[in-house]
Write a structure and sequence with these properties.
alpha/beta, eight-stranded mixed beta sheet, globular, binds thiamine diphosphate
Length: about 950
């Protein structure tokens, strides 16, 4: 087991160990062999203490310097007397001096690791300890008598030699004041050393100028004044006030200011309800008058924009801010109530914006996420999103997280809310430094905000600020907190506001006078009064949603089915793409099986026949790429493809080097990205959705391993994909590829649950398709990017059809004159239309089962019509098809159980068509398929086959009567 110095040198036996360690350092032969082994294995930690004694990790000239450490030093002569240095010290003296130094250093190290445990960051003073044994000099063998004895610590803490009393004082100021820092869990020595240097040299405090202090005070005046004003004007209206956490505003301001100095040009913010109005006004510069008008029930967008709108504490907005001449563009993402769901969306947006700016160093665009303490600790999306932070296809150069830790989640106390000491603990897993800070010390808050920003820019890693504060009122302003937290709320009742406390501090310091402090409050209030008066006449004049990269795109209106989008591609281009995907790279050892596949592809392209699903997909991607449209595909194992059908990444069998055929079509083509994602659904889908929000010129696809797993991302589907445009006027062209089909693989690998998506469909919000030909898939993908509006596309993707001999298309089906087909009509020669006895409508794979069974049984009076696009429902095309078979009974066939799949969606729509066609005679569509079931599919292959055969046979031949009532429970 790897030894760490922390694990024992800070323990109660530290004094004894220090003595031994001192001896070992003087002469390893003087300690027992087992200890020699132990000490020599101390590696990084042991080395760090030794280095400090040798003058490595600290040099006074570094104080306040922001930048990387200056190497591992080690060259400075050690001022610790050595037994051989001139012979003026005896061995005992050497040992005593070394032991004192070592003990002091161990204690210093303990403060770095555990100092936060006795820091004072709870403004209410209800939480926290004042003593911890590992922070007590006695633990290190020191007595009261030792307190004033100088000890050599070789510039550690910026002190060459200091008394123990001085050392402890410096340590307490640095590690146990208003700020508690957790950074010793970071494994990267440079990052750890950077933080240590950044905080120790200045006792973890910034000496603010008068101007700086006033700016902080002004921010508090505004944050506090705005909440109070709303409280008076709209008493009892929900606003999820920031009261108690007002320091968040100067912290955000500092992040933006310091960030802009360090090269940040754009920040994407995501935040929950708490304090959002304050952020909208104070940080995003949304006019107060606009917010007041929304309180008065006036819509937030101009009247000509369609949509349901959303409550005011969910709305996003964007703004340009200027700090010291540096402009920084801000966009606050709209979000649903679902806490933390916006996190991956923000990161996806950041990544897209970085690409747009060619910001490969990820230096110019940054994500800034705010969180509640209960939500950060509790929601699974938090670790899912943190996990993306360093991955090649997803990294964004570090996010700053600010937890508004008001010590309560609605009515729930931390003891019920998390198993870890701090809400931030989950972020330790990705090595993020964590700054706990007392919200009632606004200077400390701004100080850590500054360091966090510098750290992000320096190391491009996530960093967390845990703003320890309180919540002055109930969860919302109508809630009574005394029901559940009486002690805390009695304390809060007598606790002055952050602004009041800071005013007192500044007055005491002489930084402002009492009148000035009061005048700033009154002036701000007068300004709010003015804006309040103007609110009834306020008219929003623009919906900021089709600007920038969205220019040229429009909000869709009209009848979707009447559209005929031009998605065909010249044969020449198809052949060019086809050549690229079937050409093995030179000097690259391609797997033999894949070589064979490539050869098969080459033949498909040359003959123009037999194009399978995977090839059609590659042709769609490739043709978009040569047209200048970027493609980004992410999902679990998407490079190869779960079903080994894609292989858009080739792996050299000797070197494991990767080759992307779709990136090698021609010079000047757009970029193609394919990522094997982490094993997350909500996190990754949220990320890709966010990406699509910020970049309408990239075809963004997310692929589920099997469609079933997409319900792990249900929040992203319900709250963003289905309803985002209606709520927030934000379009997305995200494509979901959801492998689907009842093929005997059991309850979890059969259904992508199309019913879920269909239930969400209305107002042309998205498209749901279950396609049966490679060409139709090709057109569906291209259609996404060849329209002047954007809509999500949900694809029930094939599994067995990937290799089905009938599931092929010709190149001609993708070339001139072809396009996407919402409905595929009968393809075989049957009896005359009027003589057709039954028409079966279906969608997806079951078509091929029906087709084969019909052929096997020699049936020629049953027509098969495929509904390729379920939503928008292709009513007109279906009317045309059904009119052909005017004498036929109409059956809907599906392989999914009746309560799943399409039936409940299709029935009223089909019925509506039949009513029209039959002139109100009671002809109703009839269901042929599995009966309603709790689980989507059986786990037994044999049962599956029997069921499948029965449903297919029933659809083709059974009397209508026997097909009725799929929802009745079978008895007997
Ligand atoms: C995913 C989710 N579950 C439940 C809720 C209901 N809810 C709204 S606020 C809240 C408490 C949040 O506490 P915390 O994260 O500490 O933020 P605070 O309100 O204290 O600022 C809860 C449970 C929600 N909005 N989202």
């Amino acid at each position: 087991m790897a030894a760490t110095l922390d694990s024992f040198l800070t323990g109660t036996n530290a004094a004894f160990i220090a003595e031994l360690y001192a001896r070992y350092l003087g002469d390893p032969a003087t300690v027992d062999a087992s200890w020699v082994t132990y000490f020599s294995g101390l590696q990084e930690d042991g080395g760090a203490v030794l280095d400090e004694l040798r003058g490595a990790s600290w040099a006074p000239s570094d104080a306040g310097v922001i930048g990387r450490g200056d190497g591992d030093g080690g060259g400075a002569p050690s001022p610790i007397p050595t037994g051989t240095a001139g012979g003026s010290f005896g061995a005992d003296q050497v040992r005593a001096a070394t032991k004192d130094s070592l003990s002091a250093l161990m204690m210093i190290r303990a403060y770095r690791v555990r100092g936060h445990l006795i820091a004072r960051f709870d403004p209410l003073g209800l939480e926290g300890n004042t003593h911890h044994p590992e922070l007590d000099p006695k633990t290190y063998g020191f007595t009261e008598a030792d307190m004033d004895r100088p000890i050599f610590i070789n510039h550690v803490l910026g002190l060459e030699t200091a008394t123990l009393r001085e050392i402890v004082q410096v340590l307490r100021e640095t590690y146990c004041g208003s700020i508690g820092v957790e950074f010793m869990h970071i494994m990267e020595p440079e990052e750890k050393a950077w933080i240590q240097r950044r905080i120790e040299g200045i006792r973890n405090q910034t000496q603010f100028t008068l101007k700086g202090k006033r700016a902080i005070y002004q921010r508090l005046v505004e944050a506090d004044g705005f909440e109070k004003f709303l409280d008076v004007k709209y008493t009892g209206t929900k606003r999820f006030g920031l009261d108690g956490g007002e320091s968040m505003i100067p912290a955000l301001e500092q992040i933006l200011k310091r960030g802009s100095q360090l090269g940040i040009k754009e920040v994407v913010l995501g935040m929950p309800h708490r304090g959002r109005l304050n952020v909208l006004a104070g940080i995003m510069c949304k006019p107060y008058v606009a917010i007041f008008s929304e309180f008065q029930g006036i819509a937030s967008s101009p009247g000509d924009v369609h949509g349901s709108g959303d409550v005011k504490y969910h709305l996003g907005t964007s703004a340009d801010r200027v700090f010291d001449g540096n402009t920084i563009h801000l966009s606050l993402a709209a979000n649903p109530s679902h806490l933390e769901a916006v996190n991956p969306v923000v990161l996806g947006k950041v990544r897209a914006k970085q690409n747009e700016r060619n910001d490969e160093a990820r230096h110019q665009v940054m994500g800034l996420l705010m969180h509640g303490d209960a939500a950060f600790a509790g929601q699974g999306l938090v670790p899912e999103t943190l996990d993306l932070s360093q991955l090649r296809g997803y990294r964004t150069g570090g996010t700053i997280h600010l937890i508004v830790n008001n010590q309560i989640g609605f009515t729930t106390s931390p003891a019920q809310s998390r198993s870890s000491p701090y809400p931030s603990d989950v972020a330790k897993g990705i090595q993020a430094p964590i700054f706990h800070v007392n919200g009632d010390d606004p200077e400390a808050v701004v100080h850590v905000a500054r360091i966090a920003t510098e750290f992000r820019q320096e190391f491009k890693r996530d960093v967390v600020i845990d703003l320890f504060c309180y919540r002055r009122h109930g969860h919302n302003e109508a809630d009574e907190p005394m029901f559940t937290q009486p002690i805390m709320y009695r304390t809060i009742g007598g606790h002055p506001t952050t602004r009041e406390l800071y005013a007192r501090r500044l007055i005491k310091e002489g930084a402002i006078t009492e009148e000035e402090a009061g005048r700033m409050v009154a002036d701000f209030r007068a300004r709010l009064e003015q804006e309040f008066e103007a609110a009834p006449g306020y008219k929003p004049n623009r919906a900021d949603w089709l600007e920038g990269v969205w220019k040229g795109l429009v909000q869709f209106s009209g009848e979707e089915e009447l559209r005929d989008d031009d998605t065909a591609v010249p044969i020449k281009v198809l052949r060019e793409v086809g050549a690229a995907i079937s050409r093995p790279p030179e000097n690259f050892n391609v797997n033999r099986k894949i070589l064979r596949q490539m050869d098969a592809k080459r033949k498909m392209i040359e003959s123009g026949e037999g194009i399978d699903w995977g090839t059609a997909e590659a042709l769609a991607f490739g043709s978009l790429l040569v047209e200048g449209t970027r493609v980004r595909l992410s999902g679990q194992d998407s490079g190869r493809g779960t079903f080994s059908h894609r292989h858009c990444v080739l792996v050299d069998q000797d070197t494991e080097e990767r080759y992307f055929p779709l990136s090698e079509i021609r010079k000047g083509q757009a970029t193609f990205e394919v990522m094997d994602s982490p094993l997350s659904e909500a996190g990754v889908l949220g990320y890709e959705y966010g990406y699509s929000l910020a970049d309408p010129q990239t075809l963004v696809l997310w692929e589920a391993q099997f469609g079933d797993f997409a319900n792990g991302a249900q929040v992203i589907i319900d709250q963003f994909i289905a309803s985002g445009e209606s709520k927030w006027l934000r379009m997305s062209s995200i494509v979901l590829l959801l492998p689907h089909g009842h093929e005997g693989q059991g309850p979890e690998h059969s259904s992508a649950r199309p019913e879920r998506y269909l239930q969400l469909c209305a107002e042309d919000n998205m498209q749901v398709v279950n396609l049966t030909t490679p060409a139709n898939y090709f057109h569906a993908l291209r259609r996404q990017m060849r329209r002047n509006f954007r809509k999500p596309l949900i694809v029930m993707a094939p599994k067995s059809l990937l290799r089905h001999k009938l599931v092929t298309s010709g190149l001609r089906d993708m070339a001139g004159g072809t396009g996407f087909q919402r409905v595929l009509p009968e393809t075989d020669d049957l009896v005359a239309d009027k003589k057709v006895r039954r028409v079966i409508l279906c969608s997806g794979k079951v078509y091929y089962d029906l087709w084969q069974a019909r052929r096997d049984a020699g049936i020629d009076d049953v027509a098969l019509v495929r509904v390729e696009q379920l939503y928008p429902w292709p009513r007109n095309t279906l009317v045309k098809q059904l009119r052909r078979y005017s004498g036929a009974e109409v059956v809907w066939c599906q392989e999914e159980p009746a309560n799943m799949g399409y039936w409940t969606f299709v029935f009223p729509r089909l019925d509506n068509i039949l009513v029209e066609l039959s002139g109100n005679k009671a002809t109703r569509p009839v269901y042929a398929g599995r009966p309603a079931a709790a689980s989507p599919a059986t786990g037994m292959a044999k049962v599956h086959q029997k069921e499948q055969a029965r449903l297919v046979e029933g659809a083709l031949t059974a009397a209508l009567k026997s097909l009725q009532q799929p929802f009745l429970r079978k008895t007997g």
